[in-house]
Specification:
Radius of gyration: 24 Å
Length: 529
């Protein structure tokens, strides 16, 4: 008896297109999830890293910002590379480079090596953020599909921020902190393979070429700015290197604007900033993300460094903030499609400001989780609303053929804001804490020898080093003073971050508006309206 072969119906073009669409969205979401894991990874283990490597306050800030600096500095160039040579290839290469950086961090035993590994991983993230977003926006060309794609990308970003403290806190509870970076390296390799197998290649090379003068000027400008902010408290704000760094920033950021206006194929068209909604979204991204990540960094220092909570215990509040967005994912898609970004931005920024001021009102000695749940949820919901709406506000108001540039610009200004968050909060908080400690040590009843030891540590390593130093009985004497000084400094940091969020809400209300506007993509340049 001859068996009849089973009949497999042919795959229709619409089914194939849907499979490509779904695979590309999955690949883009995995990529941004990996990038966000790297960004948030240090938050829950700042205390463990500080104690294991005996870092100063400035070194602890650099561990976070070493990842964020290249992500901000290189975002525009990688957006351009993706447009010219293909976003899928860029995502695969960036994920593999991130894996190399995590290997360096996983084998580190000095602050310098850890900072180096973070910088390499940050270069990978600089490509992953804009390329993943451009992959998704290139394949979602209808309003409903665009809203779903942006909501999925935002949810994946927030999911990465949720996974990072859960993973790092859980691992470091039972193993050295280096293992958390090693596990992230494994995830980077998995992401590269998935992007290669599932992603659809896309590009928009017309009129795009590498802009080395623009890349050089923006890199020098941003690195100079961040160096001045981070090193200012320890080197002295009036010292020659710090003053010079701000002068260099002013010169090179001016040079960047001049170079881009004169370039035949700029990495960033300054004319985009003549679109009010795009310019406003850029300003909101810098100010608002400074407020959000500055507040998250402030929280991580409160938990891991000031209160000496264990890594997993310190991870739980960070997880609560980030778990909110996945839960409201269906709502994000509907809100983007029906009311547009304006109302979402105002609501989100105000929610974050309220949560940060609420968190500031909690006593520094209270380590209970329950009183923190309210402000943590407000921050989480606000973050989800803001990130989804910021992206939509930027990419939907530029011509369709410039969405890659818009996506890269959105990544740059968002990452710049996130980079400035820990830097600015650390500078303000450590400066205030050092000033209070200097005054307090004189009235602490210390012997001349004890005062000399404490003053030397404070001068060399700053308030965090003095708070975490193992000095035997002297540590017990100093603990009330160091705790109060750090609490004073970082509580004032939360006032600063809340003010930044309120400022961003005002910009959103004035320039984006509160009227429903939807998320229809703009037409390509030269097309009929």
């Amino acid at each position: 008896m001859v068996s009849t072969p089973a009949y497999d119906p042919p795959v229709t073009s619409s089914e194939a297109a849907q499979a490509r669409h779904t695979g590309t969205v999955i690949a883009g979401c995995l990529a941004v999830c990996l990038a966000q894991i790297g960004l948030v990874l240090p938050a829950a283990i700042n205390g463990e890293m500080q104690r294991a490597l005996q870092t100063s306050g400035a070194e602890l800030t650099w561990i976070s910002d070493a990842f964020l600096v290249p992500a901000a500095v290189l975002a525009l160039t990688f957006g351009l590379v993706g447009d010219r040579y293909g976003r899928k290839k860029l995502v695969v290469g960036a994920a593999l480079l991130s894996a190399v950086g995590y290997l360096v961090s996983a084998t580190s035993d000095t602050p310098a090596q850890l900072i180096t590994g973070q910088a390499i991983s940050g270069i990978g993230a600089a490509a992953l953020f804009p390329a993943s977003l451009a992959m998704i926006t290139a394949i979602t060309t209808t309003p409903a599909a665009r809203a779903r794609g942006l909501a999925a990308w935002t949810t994946a970003l927030s999911l990465g921020a949720f996974i990072a403290p859960l993973m790092s806190g859980g691992i470091v509870e039972h193993a050295p902190f280096q293992w958390a970076f090693g596990m992230t390296g494994v995830l980077a390799v998995i992401t590269a393979v998935a992007a290669w197998l599932l992603g659809t290649e896309s590009s928009a090379p017309e009129g795009r070429s590498l802009d080395w003068p623009g890349q050089f000027t923006i890199a020098v400008a941003l690195l100079s700015l961040l160096y001045g902010i981070i090193q200012g408290p320890s080197d002295g704000w009036s010292s020659a290197p710090i003053v010079a760094s701000f002068v260099v920033f002013a010169v090179f950021i001016t040079g960047f604007v001049v170079v881009e206006n004169r370039s035949a194929a700029p990495m960033l068209r300054m004319s985009l900033f003549r679109i009010p909604a795009f310019a406003a979204s850029a300003a909101m991204a810098v100010i608002g993300m400074l407020g959000f990540l500055g507040g998250a960094y402030d929280l991580s220092i409160r938990l891991g460094v000031i209160q000496h909570q264990g890594p997993f215990q310190a991870a739980i509040p960070i997880m609560i903030i980030q778990v909110c967005t996945p839960f409201i994912w269906p709502l994000l898609a509907r809100l983007l499609h029906r009311i547009g970004p304006g109302p979402m931005l105002v609501t989100g920024f105000l929610a974050m400001a309220t949560g940060q001021l609420w968190l500031r009102s909690l006593p520094i000695h209270d380590t209970a989780l329950l009183p923190m749940v309210g402000p943590l949820i407000l921050n989480g919901i606000g973050f989800g609303l803001v990130v989804a709406a910021l992206t939509a506000a930027a990419v939907n108001v530029v011509p369709q053929n410039l969405t890659g540039m818009a996506a890269a610009t959105t990544s740059l200004v968002r990452d710049l804001g996130q980079t400035l968050g820990p830097a600015v909060v650390g500078a303000v908080a450590l400066g205030m804490a050092a000033g209070q400690l200097t005054r307090s040590l004189a009235d602490a009843g210390l012997t001349p020898k004890e005062h000399g030891i404490a003053s030397a540590i404070l001068h060399e390593g700053g308030p965090i080093a003095l708070h975490s130093a193992d000095l035997g009985p002297l540590s017990a004497k100093l603990a009330p003073y160091t705790t109060d000084a750090l609490a004073h400094g970082y509580n004032n940091g939360l006032i600063l971050t809340a003010a930044a969020c309120v400022t961003a809400a005002v910009i959103a209300a004035v320039f984006v508006g509160l009227r429903p506007s939807g998320t229809a993509p703009a037409k390509a340049e030269g097309s009929a309206a």
